[in-house]
Specification:
Blueprint lengths: L8 E3 L8 H7 L10 H17 L4 E5 L3 H10 L7 E6 L3 H11 L3 E6 L8 H10 L5 E7 L11 H10 L5 E5 L18 E5 L11 E5 L1 H9 L9 H5 L14 H18 L1 H22 L6 E2 L11 E5 L4 H13 L1 E3 L10 H4 L2 E5 L6 H17 L7 H12 L1
Parallel strand pairs: 1-11, 3-4, 3-5, 5-6, 6-7
Antiparallel strand pairs: 2-8, 7-8, 9-10, 10-12
Helix pairs in contact: 1-9, 2-9, 5-6, 10-13, 10-14, 11-13, 13-14
The structure holds pyridoxal-5'-phosphate.
């Protein structure tokens, strides 16, 4: 017997739930790619992307996933033999560094582990030690989707400034753009990458690199740049086809246009941030309360360091795996798997699950996940304080 038949809810940290309107906008015949609606639409997408990123500078669009944006960021700014600083807080910045290392870039790595955000004192130490200023860029994720930690990107800029270090600041916002508050220009971020399939509520397949003039000056000498990934024609195209260096991702663009209408024009970026913050706090209230009566706890203890996009939960050894199976098979909700780096052994990793709460989600969806998890804990006999659900409803009631 299953209770899962009904609309399935993919509550993983990307791809996120796609609005029906986005899907419907994509369900159409192939458009004219030479002139007219599609061409105008792409031109309208650029300013809306910049509005979400809070930047007045440049954006290059790619037909790729987030990994493609990582590679684009590296090739447009760096050369083989350059040094960069990688700040690991889970999995993703380390992955970006592995890609850079494979391209011949020398990576200095500080790994803060999977339960911690970036410790600015240690970054300051590394930057101060680099008296010759060999470090060309400091790479961080705003939100690490494995650990669900949120790093303080603004403080990272302050750390660079306080140590008088000229390195560029790169931020991976693939998990959290349009979810967690972010101000590219005000926070002094030189380059930021994101993808279409998380906060932007559009199918995977498009990625974006935002960059300022300082990063663009690095492009002048970047030895790794290749014609396809070059951001210059894409960000300042002389002809329409140069936006994508070939055929445009026509249907993704229709979906993205609709998603941007919803985020920028209808709800508003600040309201979108607020909605995510309330829904995340509701989920956290449940998790924190459950833990009073059992093993369940959020991977990141400090609320200020949690992300509004994703929450990694430690359910107790073996329980993460069992709970994910129960949720999919019985409740019709699929939760995220633990990613590498969270735990040292497969047994330890079996404690974890991740709840994606980014994008097109609302109060009943967040409460549905919480209530289903609580039912699952009862069914699987995982000890918990059952007032967790009540605690979540109170957060929603307060708005
Ligand atoms: C999802 C994600 C990526 C990878 O994106 P893909 O589209 O899967 O290539 C990179 N960084 C972060 C922080 C992410 O959340």
């Amino acid at each position: 017997m299953t209770l899962a038949n009904g609309r399935h809810y993919l509550a993983i940290p990307g791809p996120s739930v796609m609005p029906d309107r986005v899907l419907q906008a994509m369900h159409r015949p192939a458009p004219n790619i030479y002139k007219g609606e599609l061409v105008e639409m792409v031109e309208s997408i650029v300013p809306d992307l910049k509005t979400i990123a809070r930047t007045q500078h440049h954006v290059a669009m790619y037909i790729s996933n987030g990994h493609g944006a990582w590679e684009a960021a590296l090739v447009n700014t760096l050369s083989r033999g350059d040094t960069i600083l990688i700040l690991g807080t889970g999995r993703f910045c380390l992955g970006w560094g592995e890609m850079a290392a494979a391209m011949g870039i020398d990576c200095q790595i500080i790994d803060f582990g999977p339960q911690s955000d970036i410790d600015m004192a240690r970054v300051a130490e590394a930057l101060t030690a680099d008296t010759a200023h060999t470090i060309k860029a400091v790479l961080a994720v705003q939100v690490d989707t494995a650990s669900s930690v949120k790093n303080n990107i603004k403080a990272l800029r302050t750390t660079l400034d306080d140590t008088n270090h000229p390195a560029m600041l790169f931020s991976d916002n693939i998990a959290c753009l349009g979810v967690d508050e972010f101000h590219m220009d005000d926070w002094g971020v030189d380059l930021m990458v994101t993808g279409s399939q998380k906060g932007l509520m559009t199918p995977p397949g498009m990625a974006f690199v935002f960059f300022n003039d300082k990063a663009d000056r690095a492009r002048d000498t970047a030895g790794l740049v290749t014609p396809y990934w070059d951001w210059r024609p894409r960000s300042n195209p002389t002809e329409f086809y140069r936006y994508f260096n070939g055929t445009a991702p026509t249907h993704h663009l229709y979906g993205l246009r609709t998603a941007l209408d919803m985020i920028v024009k209808e709800e508003g970026v600040e309201a979108v941030w607020h909605r995510h913050s309330v829904l995340a706090r509701a989920i956290w209230a449940a998790i924190d309360t459950w833990g009073n009566g059992g093993p369940v706890r959020a991977n990141i203890a400090d609320h200020a360091k949690r992300s509004n996009a994703v929450t990694t939960v430690n359910m107790g050894e073996g329980n993460g795996q069992k709970m994910r199976d129960w949720m999919t098979d019985t409740a019709g909700v699929t939760l995220g798997i633990p990613l590498g780096g969270l735990a040292a052994t497969p047994e330890a990793a079996s404690a974890f699950l991740r709840i994606g709460h980014m994008g097109h989600i609302n109060a009943h969806m967040a409460l549905g996940v919480v209530a289903s998890l609580q039912a699952g804990m009862a069914a699987l006999q995982i000890p918990h304080d059952p007032s967790g659900l009540q605690a979540a409803t109170e957060v929603i009631a307060q708005g």
